[in-house]
């Protein structure tokens, strides 16, 4: 199977070929690759792709996967609409 | 040990732009040092808007010149991708009589400098952004040539162009000391090595003050956390950035489809904190629901923070200093370093190569704060 057909990040539609090209051009950390390719910036926030990218970096640099630094985890844990957050906040103010 | 004609501290957009411009002028042995990953500082955390609607003449001039560069950046830098320069305008809402009067003045100033801003009634503004809550503002200003640039890709475009011209980059390397003997810079010491040099550019963003102190130069800036969030993608919904200083919001849909939005925290303390808070999320959500209810239907997927490096008059310091020859600085952008970066790099190159500066640019010197009351102050900041 061609590396172009292997999807690494489903949210942003990034292939294994894209990741390898990024590694070849000198970006060799999860944080760097995230900013160049947008991997891990979609709705799942890297829950699928980050581990795969970690493994590709490890292979590329000849390291153990667990020694490759992971990206910083940021809120939120899951997507929540602004409207829902606002209404909850306004309700909280009324109760005060 | 490396020999450097200049050491640039910080590979954010200001450092990158200056490195590129210096190399283009033929300078060799330029070394750029950054303590983290690519665009780890304020550049990679910014709101990605580029605007020319300011209340001070200086900021208007810097912004206009930078916008002109963004228009030709892909071509000039020979970038193989696209910096995603989108010119669909900024719509700035006035919500009080006082703000309406100030905007009247702003538009006059901007027009006198060739910036095509127009003042709009509520009805006219609704034609530009139909989903605005018509009861949330009383008038607006609109400049159609303002817009958006992707900070990661703009940085990469400068980075690759600078590398092609021979600039050396050192990421994950932290500057620990600037060694000075007899009022002359001798070397820069990092956690990985030393660089013999007599010139240093402080482009350290949120850490500009600390880098200044390493060289014994006091810079009157401070850092403050500004939070921001991004939503899931949606179909094209909103062309312009919608902004309000009094309601404390900026909100734009980027070409990728996500909305980016932020606000300042009136209780923020001076610090290097860049964490996320639930208070920000609550306040942001309430403001969006009020002004742009349609946008509030989207889900938030991530929040983060970044440092504004703030100067006393909210205008940048692009300068050398009489206190130490060979020490230069690009700091105090007060949240707008990304959008001013093209002109920042050009001006610093002129300063460093000791060329004659355009008259206006002399006012960016750090000496403007010495024993003087600040008379000009930028009000148009979120």
Helix % of chain B is 25-40%
Task: Give the mean pLDDT of chain B.
Answer: 97
Identify the quaternary structure here: heterodimer
CATH class of the largest domain in chain B: Alpha Beta
Query: Radius of gyration of chain B over alpha carbons?
Result: 20 Å
Q: Provide the CATH top-level class of chain A.
A: Mainly Alpha
- Biggest sheet of chain A: strands side by side, in what order? 1-2
Shape descriptor of chain A: elongated
Summed up, the domain count of chain B is: 2
Report the sheet-strand fraction of chain A: 5-15%
For the record, the count of structural domains of chain A works out to 1
Number of helices of chain A: 4
What composes the largest sheet of chain A?
2 strands, antiparallel
Name the shape of chain B in a single word.
globular
Instruction: Output the number of helix runs of chain B.
Output: 8
| Main sheet record of chain B | 8 strands, mixed
% residues in beta strands of chain B: 25-35%
SSE pattern of chain A, N- to C-terminal: EEHHHEH
Verbal overview:
The complex is a heterodimer of chains A (about 100) and B (about 375). Chain A has about 100 residues and is mostly helical. Chain A has one domain (about 5-70): BFD-like [2Fe-2S]-binding domain (Arc Repressor Mutant, subunit A), CATH 1.10.10. In chain A, about 45% of the residues lie in helices and about 5% in strands. Chain A is built from four helices and three strands. Chain A has helices spanning about 15-25, 30-35, 50-60, 80-95; strands at about 5-10, 15, 80. In chain A, strands 1-2 form a two-stranded antiparallel sheet. The longest helix of chain A has 14 residues, at about 80-95. Chain A is elongated and about 55 Å long. The model of chain A has no long low-confidence stretch (mean pLDDT about 95). Chain B has about 375 residues and is α/β, with parallel strands linked by helices. Chain B has two domains: about 1-45 and about 150-220 and about 315-370, FAD/NAD(P)-binding domain; about 85-150 and about 220-310, D-Amino Acid Oxidase, Chain A, domain 2 (2-Layer Sandwich). Chain B has eight helices and 20 strands. Chain B has helices at about 15-25, 55-75, 95-110, 120-130, 150-165, 210-215, 280-290, 335-350, and strands at about 1-5, 5-10, 30-35, 50, 90-95, 115-120, 140-145, 145-150, 170, 175-180, 185-190, 195, 200, 220-230, 240-245, 250-255, 260-265, 300-310, 315-320, 325-330. In chain B, a hairpin with a 3-residue loop joins strand 11 and strand 12. The longest helix of chain B has 21 residues, at about 55-75. Chain B is globular and about 65 Å long. The N and C termini of chain B lie far apart (about 45 Å). The model of chain B has no long low-confidence stretch (mean pLDDT about 95). The interface of A and B includes residues 75 and 79 of A.
């Amino acid at each position: 199977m061609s590396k172009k057909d292997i999807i690494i990040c489903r949210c942003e539609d990034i292939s294994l070929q894209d990741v390898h090209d990024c590694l070849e051009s000198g970006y060799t950390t999860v944080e760097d690759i995230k900013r160049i390719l947008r991997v891990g910036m979609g709705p799942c926030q890297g829950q699928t792709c980050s581990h795969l990218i970690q493994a590709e970096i490890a292979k590329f640099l000849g390291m153990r996967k667990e020694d490759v630094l992971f990206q910083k985890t940021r809120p939120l844990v899951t997507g929540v609409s602004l409207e829902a957050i606002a209404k909850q906040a306004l309700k909280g103010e009324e109760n005060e | 040990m490396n020999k450097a004609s200049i050491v640039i501290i910080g590979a954010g957009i200001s450092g990158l732009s200056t490195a590129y411009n210096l190399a283009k002028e033929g300078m060799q042995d330029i070394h750029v040092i950054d303590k983290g990953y690519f665009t780890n500082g304020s550049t990679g955390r910014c709101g990605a808007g580029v605007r020319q609607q300011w209340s001070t003449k200086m900021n208007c001039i810097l912004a206009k010149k930078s916008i002109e560069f963004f228009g030709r950046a892909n071509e000039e830098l020979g970038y193989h991708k696209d910096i995603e320069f989108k010119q669909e305008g900024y719509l700035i809402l006035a919500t009080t009589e006082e703000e309406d009067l100030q905007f009247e003045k702003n538009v006059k100033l901007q027009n006198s400098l060739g910036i095509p801003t127009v003042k709009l009634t509520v009805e006219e503004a609704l034609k530009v952004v139909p989903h605005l809550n018509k009861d949330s503002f009383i008038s607006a200003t609109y400049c159609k040539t303002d817009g958006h640039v992707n900070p990661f890709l703009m940085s990469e475009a400068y980075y690759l162009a600078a590398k092609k011209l021979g600039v050396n980059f050192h990421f994950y390397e932290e500057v620990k000391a600037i060694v000075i003997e007899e009022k002359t810079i001798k070397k820069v010491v990092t956690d990985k090595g030393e660089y013999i040099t007599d010139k240093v550019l402080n482009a350290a963003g949120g850490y500009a003050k600390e880098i200044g102190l390493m060289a014994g130069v006091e810079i009157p800036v401070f850092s403050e956390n500004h939070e921001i969030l991004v939503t899931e993608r949606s179909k094209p919904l909103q062309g312009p950035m919608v902004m309000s200083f009094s309601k404390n919001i900026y909100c734009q849909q980027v070409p990728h489809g996500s909305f980016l939005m932020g606000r300042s925290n009136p209780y923020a303390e001076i610090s290097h904190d860049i964490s996320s808070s639930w208070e920000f999320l609550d306040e942001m959500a309430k403001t969006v629901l009020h002004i742009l209810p349609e946008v509030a239907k989207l889900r938030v997927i991530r929040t983060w923070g970044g440092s504004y490096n703030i100067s006393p008059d909210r205008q940048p310091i692009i300068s050398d200093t009489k206190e130490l020859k060979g020490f230069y600085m690009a700091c105090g952008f007060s949240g707008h370093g990304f959008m001013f970066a093209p002109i920042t790099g050009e001006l610093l190159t002129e300063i460093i190569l000791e060329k004659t500066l355009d008259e206006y640019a002399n006012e960016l010197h750090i000496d403007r704060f010495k024993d003087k009351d600040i008379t000009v102050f930028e009000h148009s900041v979120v």
